[in-house]
Amino acid sequence: MKYNNVDFDTYFKQYPDQNGYFGKYGGSYIPENLQQAMNEITEAYFTICKSRKFIDELRRIRREFQGRPTPISHLERLSNKLGNVQLYAKREDLNHTGAHKLNHCMGEVLLAKYMGKKKVIAETGAGQHGVAMATAAAYFGLKCDIYMGSVDIKKQAPNVARMKILGANVVEVTHGLATLKEAVDAAFEAYAREYKDAIYCIGSVVGPHPFPMMVRDFQHVVGEEAREQFLHMTGELPDAIVACVGGGSNAAGFFSGFLNDPVEIYGVEPLGRGTALGDHAASLQYGTEGVMHGFNSIMLKDENGDPAPVYSVASGLDYPSSGPEHAFLHELGRVKYDVIGDDDTIDAFFELSRMEGIIPAIESAHAVAYGIKLAKEMSHGSVLINLSGRGDKDMDYIIEKYGIR
Fold first, then answer.
1. pLDDT exceeds cutoff 80 at 405
2. Which residues contact 43 (CB under 8 A, 6 or more apart)?
3. Cα 350–353–354 angle (5° rounding)?
4. Where does a domain end: 211, 246, 273?
């Protein structure tokens, strides 16, 4: 299948290129000492990812520890309420630790172990990446520092407690807006000091090469499973697939299973409170090309050209840029990126909970809201939503801010 002169039969062999670029997006914009560390990670990854021992170990971990494959659920009652379109959900909320994040964390920490590192450093927003990284570090016996903004620490208290119980050191970040961007800043600074003994395990398909590629590759299992499962369930491919996009790890893995198929693909960014700068985190919708955190992509900028303040009801989506592969797929037009605001997201959160007995993460509820929107617009067909995480972490915040509807 070709799309705007890109052959998706060979897409994963072409992109990223050897310098980590998806078209003009990606690359590595970091100091020389960190570039040497990244080159070491790249070399180790390309060696280990071809190793039968590594592949067998990762498959065993996914099967025996993570509980993969995760199932697909037919959202029958919700579908019937909406009309003739059938909604389905890929249940990453049933992956161990409650989200898709463990898929790449186990791979990254296994790589760190292979490289002889003693510590992993990570950032987290909603806390799911932090919990997954703390889990992986405990599994492999490595030290773990998790950087998290003070705003998110207050919103995501259950996940902070989980990280500490698992033995991680949670480092509170108080500067700036004290959310995800600032947590990434602080984690990068710590890595610059400790790169000889530690590895920075980035939590999404962002950052300098090789992380956008590596995290996508570890998350590919989601799309690979979903495609096979949906064909087995229904005898055909879905008409459309939907995933939320902040940095974009769950979406990159999910989309990768369907890029070469005649399937409509939708990435959903957080519109938050509205279109004014500082009221949303929809970088692909409203941003321009720019470099931050070591990679070139589409980002939201302030009047000085620096990363703009962003907002989302979902802590895991309030990031002022998006992964370089998402910027590339957006430019190609292969994936359609759209937005959903807070109000529709919270409505979808309660609707899925009440109609199907599934409490989604607020991040995932953005995709659910967009799936509902598509179902109302389509006359027939099927929509597969990536339910990237469960909502346990969000319960206190939802009840405090919105009450019980």
1. no
2. none
3. 85
4. 211
pLDDT tens per residue, range 358-379: 999 999 999 999 999 999 999 9
Query: What is the set of active-site residues?
Result: 101, 123, 388
Domain of residue 198: give its range: 23-62+101-211
Mark whether 396 and 287 lie in a shared domain.
Answer: yes
**φ, ψ for residue 90 (rounded to 5)?**
-80, 120
The residue among 182, 211, 240 that closes a domain is 211
CB 34 within 8 A of CB 337: no
Mean pLDDT score across all residues of the chain:
96
**Beta strand 198-200 pairing with 288-292:** unpaired
Within-domain flag for 7: no
Measured CA to CA, the distance from residue 300 to residue 308 in angstroms comes to: 5
Question: Is pLDDT larger for residue 156 or for residue 368?
Answer: 368
Whether residue 156 contacts residue 128, with contact meaning beta carbons closer than 8 Å, is answered with no
**Residue 4 in this model has a pLDDT that exceeds 90:** no
Cross-sheet strand order for the sheet of 382-387: 72-74, 86-91, 382-387, 240-244, 264-272, 336-341
- What's phi and psi for 384, nearest 5 deg? -105, 120
Residues 192 and 261 in one domain: no
Q: pLDDT (tens digit, 9 = 90+) per residue, 114-152?
A: 999 999 999 999 899 999 999 999 999 999 999 999 999
Does 5 map to a domain?
no
Domain assignment present for residue 10? The answer is no
Hey, what are 287's tokens? 């941003």
pLDDT of residue 3: 83
> 164 and 154 in one domain?
yes
Tokens of 74: 């037919």
With respect to residue 94, please indicate whether it lies within any of the assigned structural domains.
Answer: yes
What's the token pair of residue 389? Answer: 């995480």
Give this prediction's pTM.
0.96
